[in-house]
Design goal:
It is built from 13 helices and 12 strands. With 380 residues, the protein is α/β, with parallel strands linked by helices. The strands form 3 sheets. It has a 5-stranded parallel β-sheet. It has a 5-stranded mixed barrel with strand order 8-9-10-12-11. Strands 1-2 form a two-stranded antiparallel ribbon.
């Protein structure tokens, strides 16, 4: 039903355009055919001929036009109301300027200038007005927020309520980098509500994800596709506020440097699990949320003397050591555990070591589980 209505509207627009062009240009066509004085050169016939020609064109181009309309609708539906408002205002300003300029152009008695330059002027200035305002979207957002989020102190009988400023100890925008999207844990974290504010995915990060997804390497391709799947899940989740940042920094080639520049520009926080990006951002005073640091922070705390039940899965680096893992992936180095590989044993925690890569726990077998090596137990 909607598709039929769209076709009717497009066909009606073609008829109006054809009729207008017919009544304007058909007299010149009859004159060129030396039929200027014939009954064919009548305003009604001119309108009819133009309308028929454009009706035929509408049938030939209908599918392509409908596809173009669908793309435009999808692009508009993904934009924020502020983006659409600023774009509309920009177009109106550009068209008004073009109107004033066209008044002077129309005074020139050259038909070619009137018919070609004036329409081009309207298109160019309308586009420039649209781009001028929409590319300053973040500046307008900051302007609106500054007026809306002023600190207000309300004094009551027993308490003082302060309305927090966006600029004070709070960053509204959380910018995702490529590594944290591919990792996938960010979706569960956002669903849990531990990260507040608006999630921002820049287009240069999307482009990098697409390059990874199109890679000839099988592992890279699967990682890139998983990242795109995670983004689709984030976009479909109504509880997560996701925005696409359309801007780019053409003078910068590295994506990490672009992320830091964007975070400075919109007063945002970079969300990553890239250790190197974390250090560079901290050096430039850009706040960072590191997913790996969060994962290490929420791991269970163990203290020396605590008893654990683990399965030793492989040899350690030192003699007689065995290696086990907790459910969260924390590695446990067990002294004298080499003799109990593939066994579930009780161990006693002796110490824990926090490293940049994560946490390591050192333990020894519980006294009841110690086994004497065969070579040392044999007595001649």
């Amino acid at each position: 039903m909607q598709n039929n209505m769209t076709r009717r509207i497009i066909r009606f627009i073609f008829v109006v355009i054809g009729s207008s062009l017919g009544i304007t240009y058909m007299p010149e066509v009859w004159n060129w055919l030396k039929l200027a004085n014939s009954p064919m050169n009548h305003w009604f016939i001119n309108i009819l001929v133009g309308a028929i020609i454009f009706i035929i064109l509408s049938f030939l181009l209908m599918n392509q036009i409908i596809q173009l309309v669908r793309r435009v609708e999808n692009a508009i539906s993904k934009q924020s109301p502020l983006y659409l408002l600023l774009g509309s205002v920009g177009i109106i300003i550009g068209l008004l300027i073009a109107t004033f300029i066209s008044i002077g152009i129309n005074s020139i008695e050259i038909p070619l200038v009137k018919q070609i330059v004036s329409p081009i002027l309207f298109v160019v200035l309308g586009y420039l007005g649209f781009r001028t305002l929409t590319t300053r979207l973040e500046d307008f957002k900051k302007l609106f927020q500054m007026g809306r989020n002023k600190s207000v102190e309300v004094v009551q009988e027993d308490s003082v309520v302060l309305d927090r400023k966006v600029q004070d100890n709070f960053r509204q925008y959380k910018i995702l980098d490529t590594s944290v999207i591919i990792d996938g844990r960010i979706y569960d974290i956002l669903q849990s509500g531990f990260i507040e504010g608006t999630i921002v995915v820049p287009t240069f990060v999307l482009n990098e994800l697409q390059l990874i997804a199109d890679s000839s390497d099988t592992l890279k391709r699967s990682r890139g596709r998983r990242g795109l799947d995670i983004l689709n899940q984030l976009q479909k989740d109504d509880q997560i506020k996701l925005e696409i940042y359309e801007g780019d920094y053409e003078d910068i080639s590295e994506v990490d440097t672009k992320l830091i520049r964007l975070a400075k520009g919109i007063d945002g926080i970079v969300v990553t699990n890239d250790f190197n990006l974390n250090k560079v951002a901290e050096f430039q005073n850009v706040p960072v949320f590191n997913i790996n640091a969060l994962a290490n922070a929420v791991k269970p705390v163990v203290i020396p003397g605590e008893m654990l039940k683990v399965m030793i899965v492989k040899n350690g680096t030192e003699r007689q050591q065995g290696v086990a893992y907790l459910e969260d992936g924390t590695m446990i180095v067990v002294e004298e555990g080499q003799l109990h590989i593939n066994e579930t044993v009780d161990v006693v925690v002796t110490s824990a070591l926090q490293t940049a890569a994560g946490r390591m726990i050192f333990a020894k077998l519980a006294p009841a589980r110690k086994r004497i090596p065969e070579e040392s137990s044999s007595i001649q």
